[in-house]
Amino acid sequence: MVDTLPSLAFLGAGSMGGAILHGVVASGIPVSGGIVATNRTPVKAAELEGLADVRSIALEETPGGNAEAAASARIVLIGVKPGMVADLLAEIAPHLRDDAIVVSVAAGVTIDAFRSILGSDARVLRAMPNTPATVGRAVTGLAAADGVAENDVAIVRRLFETVGSVVELPEEQIDALSTISGSGPAYVFLLIEEFTKAAIGKGFSESDARLLAEQTFIGATALLEASGEAPAELRRRVTSPKGTTERAVAVLADAHLDTVFAEATDAALARAKEIAAGG
Fold first, then answer.
1. Is 239 exposed, middle or buried (0-12, 13-18, 19+ CB in 10 A)?
2. Where is the Pyrroline-5-carboxylate reductase catalytic N-terminal domain (predicted)?
3. Measured CA distances, 234 to 2, 155, 177, 224, 251 (Å)
4. Residue 16 assigned as binding residue
5. Of the candidates 13, 124, 197, 252, which lies 20 to 30 Å from 148 by C-alpha distance?
6. Residue 49 in contact with residue 56, Cβ under 8 Å?
7. Which residues in the chain come in under a pLDDT of 70?
8. Which SS3 state, helix, strand or coil, does residue 10 take?
């Protein structure tokens, strides 16, 4: 495992980029050469000041800050909105180091789009973390451009492991991954919402209903992680023959949840393709 990271630049250290930056700092993994982060406003930049080995730049005060940051780093993470990526890449391209690794967390922007601006031999990786990165429990899909060295991929993998788990995959699977781990937190939150409503319907106060629903999900997933067992096996252990849980699970099975989740993720994938096509 990579036990140190090279110099890092976070261009657009907003919610996702900032979460990854905080993950690196919190992990304690050494960063040779330090970390530079850019944000548009002094207010946003101030949120990162005081973090160990981090230099935070406000672009409103330092207009050339992105180029300066990119020139200083081996790994350059692009965290701006997708519509801003092309202009940012054109700005930093002349300043990138020869050994720079450029990593995108911009949804829908392909590796080919990056290389069309940075050059066909640019070391580019495309990453898709999900929102639990903010609490260090992300799942990140990681796809590398053709020709990127295994050691470079390992370095970027280690970067994202500071905020959770990493799955390496070909770029053509990134959109499919987004329908599972990317959108997945929303599915879980929806289930908790509905479970809470069911508890309120049974006469519990809203606060007690939330506690019952939320802590049941949190506790169940903690048990799943700690046990190492498959979800189906843990479900079997809770479901006593001819008991109350068995009756409830039968109702859920009759709702054809397998079809519902397949259709939901298919719909998300179709929309991802529409967005990629400019729709």
1. middle
2. 8-108
3. 35, 36, 25, 8, 18
4. yes
5. 13
6. yes
7. 1, 279
8. strand
The pLDDT value given to residue 239: 97
> Is residue 66 annotated as involved in ligand binding?
yes
Q: How do 123-128 and 101-104 pair as beta strands?
A: parallel
Residue 73 assigned ligand-binding role:
no
Give yes or no for a contact between 117 and 86, defined as CB atoms under 8 angstroms apart: yes
For the chain, domain boundaries: 8-171, 184-276
27: three-class secondary structure by DSSP: helix
What are the pLDDT digits (tens) for 22-55?
999 999 999 998 999 999 999 999 999 889 889 9
Residue 11 annotated as lining a ligand binding site = yes
Ligand-binding annotation for 39, yes or no, is no
CATH number of 184-276: 1.10.3730.10
Annotated binding residue at 13? yes
CATH classification number, 8-171, choose in 3.40.50.300, 3.40.50.720, 1.10.3810.10, 3.40.440.10: 3.40.50.720
* 1 appears as a binding residue in the annotation: no
